[in-house]
Specification:
This protein is an alpha+beta fold. About 15% of the residues lie in helices and about 45% in strands. It has three domains: about 1-115, DNA Polymerase III, subunit A, domain 2 (DNA Polymerase III, Chain A, domain 2); about 125-240, DNA Polymerase III, Chain A, domain 2 (Roll); about 245-360, Proliferating Cell Nuclear Antigen (Box). It contains six helices and 26 strands. The radius of gyration is 25 Å and the shape is elongated. The protein starts with a strand and ends in an 8-residue tail after the last strand.
Length: about 375
Amino acid sequence: MKFNVLRTDLVEAVTNVSRAVAGKAAIPALEGILIKAYGQNITVSGYNLEIGITTTVEATIQSEGEIVVPARTFSEFIRKLPEEVVCIETDDRMKTYITSGTATCKLIGINSVEYPDLPVFDENERFELDAAILSDMIKQTVYAVSDNNAKPIYTGSLFEIKDKVFRIVAIDGYRMAIRQESVDNDIESSFVVPGKTQQEVVKLISGEEKTVKVGIGQRHIIFKIGSYSVISRLIEGTFLDYNSTIPKDKKTEVVVNTSRMIAAVDRMMPVNEDKIKSPVRLTFSNDEIHFSCTSAVNSADDVVSAPVIGEDVEIGFNNRYLFDAIRNVDTDEIKMTLNGGLSPMIITPVKGDSFINLVVPMRLSNV
């Protein structure tokens, strides 16, 4: 195999696919990057048996072939090459020679037959989503994906398309994030996408892509973003009936400026650095939200003005969970709905229903 390629194109491709390369694997080839050179393009792939990222790059190919190169060494070397044109050549003993200007490098590669095939599956359903909207929806919900593998189903988000509404739901047992947008298709489908896969999709969406093409198989999903494809397994299992977890009753309702709310919660953070986290206490009364947090040696207080409609209420939250739920909204104001001090708080836009964030309270010592 021998080809010439532009260094900037190769570096970008290798950097992106490297995020799917296994750090340590029982199959050594999975710690490398698969390069295939055929026709007028090279295909660059990374795969860790759960998620694969692949892309194509234009190249001048003198002889076709395939090779697996060690990901870290290859990536670091090509980033530091002095010239824009890179020549890569392999021989029958899997030695890979990299040349650019006066710089050369020899790497020992692995035969591509040892690289597991990326999943190939029938796409039972296909649809397109606006790239910017999908990116925003993932960013505003993925924070609530669980990192506890005891319940694998919640290490992903529910993607649901129903009645021309596309919805993403994430739950980790302490909070829930729902984000929805209208779509122009008649597909009815639901599936659970791993949180890590969603994060990779967001990283690959730039301002140039208008749409993301999505293909759904029985056990896998593929996102096509420009020249990149992200292939991932779906998480199997039964996702919680999220509608049943949203409190229907309300005793208190508050509309507040989002930025002021974020700033006040953020100011409670520095005093709450103990291993055992103290709740941040919120008291809704007299058209004010009073914030207080007390740790073993520190304390902080703050007040934000906001009209309180309904009953006064005192409630406690994990500071980080509350901060994430408020920070990941895209409106200037939010509406907070409460049903006493022990029921989850619901955060929604003042108008519309584009998002619902729910935070489970912590029990306060005097409640």
